[in-house]
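thought: user wants a sequence for this fold. calling inverse folding tool.
action: design(structure=
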């Protein structure tokens, strides 16, 4: 890998943010916080009189987690309930408690229905009052490093799933294959696949389908993990 390519890869990895568990412990899927944040920000753009500022997604309780069914991507959070923490500014056109309730509902609904995140808490903090309704800022779609041509069975299988718009290489390769050594069994292959997903499909459902199709396409029934790096 050239120095320029290495620097680009590091920048993309840092920009991903946390790798958040999608669904539950048996789903074997994760999503980059950057991608999830973009979806949540798009979901609240229609709320008049609100400006969403800082937004983070983290484990609700680091002690309330589960072992994933497959090896996770590097530094990924373990499956468990999540908390969305956000700061916002608002006008005085509506009572702040009512505006906060609308914002909380929009964030929780997008996280659950659009993405498939297990969000159990949404913590909000008002940072300032606005004199007039803010303009809706455009939400930047994450642009992780794109992968090369799909020339292996795992990549072809992933691209065949409805909702997958492409393969990405934010962590180095779109398809990463490794040997997984069990305590008593013979080594077994483990495959990690990176994908981008469109805005029409529920992300966790697409990730589940990718796991299923990649597992069927490869000999030896390898374990499969999916990382979603962009949505929309």
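)
observation: tool returned 232 residues.
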């Amino acid at each position: 890998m050239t120095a320029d390519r290495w620097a680009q890869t590091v920048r993309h990895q840092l920009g991903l943010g946390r790798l958040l568990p999608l669904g539950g412990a048996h789903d074997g899927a994760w999503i980059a916080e950057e991608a999830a944040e973009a979806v949540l920000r798009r979901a609240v753009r229609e709320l008049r009189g609100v400006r969403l500022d800082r937004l983070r997604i983290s484990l609700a309780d680091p002690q309330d987690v589960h072992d994933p069914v497959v090896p996770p991507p590097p530094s990924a959070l373990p499956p468990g309930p999540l908390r969305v923490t956000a700061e916002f500014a608002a006008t005085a056109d509506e009572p702040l408690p009512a505006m906060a309730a609308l914002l909380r509902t929009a964030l929780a609904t997008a996280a659950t229905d659009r993405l498939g995140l297990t969000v159990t808490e949404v913590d909000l903090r008002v940072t300032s009052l606005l004199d007039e309704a803010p303009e809706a800022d455009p939400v930047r779609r994450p642009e992780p490093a794109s992968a090369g041509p799909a020339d292996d069975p795992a990549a072809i299988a992933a691209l065949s799933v409805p909702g997958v718009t492409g393969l990405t290489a934010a962590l180095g390769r779109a398809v990463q294959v490794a040997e997984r050594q069990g305590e008593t069994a013979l080594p077994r292959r483990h495959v990690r696949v990176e994908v981008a997903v469109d805005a029409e499909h529920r992300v966790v459902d697409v990730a589940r389908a990718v796991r299923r199709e990649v597992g069927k396409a490869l000999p030896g029934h390898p374990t499969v993990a999916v990382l979603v790096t962009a949505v929309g």
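thought: summarizing for user.
answer: Here is the designed sequence. Residues 17-130 form a domain with the Alpha-Beta Plaits fold (CATH 3.30.70.1350).
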